[in-house]
Amino acid sequence: MASPSSPSPSDLSAYWMPFTANRDFKAHPRMLVSAEGMYYRDDAGNAVLDGTAGLWCVPLGHSQPRIVSAVQKAVATLDYAPSFQMGHPAAFELADRLRDYTGGRFSQIFFTGSGSESVDSALKIALGYHRARGEPTRTRFIGRERGYHGVGFGGMSVGGIPGNRKTFHASLLPGVDHLQHTHDLTRNAFSRGVPQHGAELADELERLVTLHDASNIAAVIVEPVSGSTGVLIPPVGYLKRLRDICTKHGILLIFDEVITGFGRLGTPFAYDYFDVMPDMVTTAKGVTNGVVPMGAVMVQPHVYDAFMHGPAGIELAHGYTYSGHPLACAAGLATLDIFEQDGILEHAQSVVEYWHDAAFALRDAPNVIDIRAIGMVIGIELAPRAGQPGARAFEAFRRAFADGLLIRVTGDIIALSPPLVIEKAQIDELFDKLGKVLRNLD
Ligand SMILES: Cc1ncc(COP(=O)(O)O)c(C=O)c1O
């Protein structure tokens, strides 16, 4: 076993790492060996402040003792239970608790194993919904440029990241359109909170409806705030306009809240923050505090009800071996307990201004061309080096890690999304370290 002070015994060659430059990593590895609270520890024993909540998935901080003990208890009691035609109490309990967490607005919860599975499940539910209601021609999906919806073929197809699509383009789903992204540095740079300009971009949906006819369109899927492509915050009024156009034409609206769910904006979900209700929400990550893989699709009553009037038998021919896994359910229940008992959202709200102030203090750092902030998320966009897109931010990532800070970069954008339990002293530490990195970067 590796310990914080001993080097890894592996030569690193067997593990094909996801979304990683394998050759570069294996030449210059960055190894995390333990985690507690706001900090990782690397294999040299250094503390690394977690500025990204892992991969946006650890809102309550690491090794939360109540989650650890809930999972330990679960594994010793019911390690696995089949999810097809069988149930176990914790899955029903977690679905009830999630329904309550949404104030009852999402009445049924379909469990998956990840965000990608949640997205593909939601797209299938949208097709099944229209078919069940006698509108089987509604099959088209509309996503958005710079959207990330995971790596299943459905999610990739509605996603809008050129690099993720290029290799697979011939096998993407047919019948998918994309709205224009909303990122507009000319009009909205250095917006604090929701930017002012761009609500009219939602009207493009009307153009697509005219082109294809509403009777052929199943659903629109967007992230309320795009995380993975660099913290793209929707302009004021934009999501409401999308909602109105979808409602007018009988199109389902799906919010992909894999990142924004579970408090990232200081509210339970982003739909609370924006006060715009989608028909379905996809989620994952924070649902178990990242401890055991799990995702979920949460649906409004009309979506579930549409399936419940057909012939007897299986209503939706879809599901996963690990849907509602007992360990994930135990972690999910403990996570919801802690959100409620420890006032996690209240804590996040109490530090959010401080968090934004600290970020905007970097406004004059070299190469910074935008800072954007919403809830407990910050995006800092750097000017790219000539002919080397992404190189400047990646160097910032490397240097920050060497200095004991984990940040996330995408292109030349730094995304910060710490555990929601971050304290002001840790916010100071984070921006001290990041400020030094940026000031010393050419
Ligand atoms: C908005 C969104 N959807 C889907 C996914 C995919 O989730 P997973 O990596 O759990 O499959 C992500 C992952 O970051 C995401 O941010």
TrEMBL record:
Keywords: Aminotransferase, Pyridoxal phosphate, Pyruvate, Transferase. GO terms for biological process: biotin biosynthetic process. The keyword Transferase applies. It is an enzyme of class 2 (transferase). One of its GO terms (molecular function) is beta-alanine:pyruvate transaminase activity. Pfam families: Aminotran_3 (PF00202). PROSITE patterns: AA_TRANSFER_CLASS_3. Its cofactor is pyridoxal 5'-phosphate. Transmembrane segments: none annotated. Belongs to the class-III pyridoxal-phosphate-dependent aminotransferase family. This is Beta-alanine--pyruvate transaminase. It comes from Pigmentiphaga litoralis.
